[in-house]
Amino acid sequence: MRFFSQRQKFSDLTVQEVLGLAISSEEDDARIYRSFAAQLEPDFPASAAMFREMAVEEDEHRRVLIDLFQAKYGDTIPLIRREHVAGFYARKPMWLSYNLSLDQIRDEAAAMERAAEMFYLKAAGAATDPEVRKLLGDLAQAEARHHAKAHALEQAHLSGEEADDEKATAHKQFVLTWVQPGLAGLMDGSVSTLAPIFATAFATQDTWTTFLVGLAASVGAGISMGFTEAASDDGELSGRGSPWKRGFASGIMTTVGGLGHALPYLIPDFWTATITAFVVVFLELWAIAWIQNKYMDTPFFRAAFQVVLGGAMVFAAGVLIGSG
After folding, report:
1. 318: which residues sit within 8 A by CB, 6+ positions away?
2. In Å, how far from its chain's centre is CA 275?
3. Are 25 and 172 contained in the same domain?
4. CA distance 179 to 258
5. 300 and 317 fall within a common domain
6. E strands of the chain, at which residues?
7. What is the pLDDT of residues 229-283, one digit of tens each?
8. 146 and 245 part of one domain
9. 8 - beta bridge partners?
């Protein structure tokens, strides 16, 4: 109960406190938008300009609110923030936005404005004091206008060419951060585990032992690839993005690539499991070729030839070693 007692209900706030809350909220939002602008400036200057202008709008809202407070109640503005009020819409800590994509940042800004508008509308509907109701209604309208202004600012700052440039930059960043390390992991997991899995399969003809070897090889390779990718490049100079994102993409896809042809050995019958694993390997290799063609601009048949040839050689080595 103590936790709840430390947060006031919005309906219990005085008009002065509501104004103080609105002032601090507008100040916080302006800081968030300026942080977005600074984060986006190197790669997305047009969007950065949009967020700087939105911050100026928030500054103007704050100035008007302060003028109104001083005219009605004097210079002592109550210190009250979002976290002091139960049910008030919260803002995410800024460090959680550092690795967001351009589209995610825009979505976050839109959600900020929508959440503020909806909260003020709900609070205005529940308020019994006419002055509080009018104030909350005015704040809701201001947030709605700001949301519309944000869309207009996006149209003003982002011409067709600039929008295309930013989309191309965002796509490149997506490929460097997620696709490239994920593809490297999938290739490593799919190809490097072929030899130990099929060598074990043909040496023992024991499906459960083969599955355990495949599981160990896949998980071990995934952990190794993930940490190697994360530790090899912090992304500052190469521009490849967060090392942790790349590490997760590489590690998870490495594990998935190996498990694809390990899981069939949960089937008790050896030849049924092995034929199923053959089919899975074929699908994995063609999936790798398709990803290379779609995201890396590698001609499909060249990618397919390279991947299938390499996979076939590793597969043959595993079968020969296991049969011997």
Report:
1. 194, 195, 196, 197, 198, 199, 202
2. 38
3. no
4. 18
5. yes
6. 8-9, 85-86
7. 777 766 654 556 678 888 888 889 899 988 998 999 999 999 999 999 989 988 8
8. no
9. 85
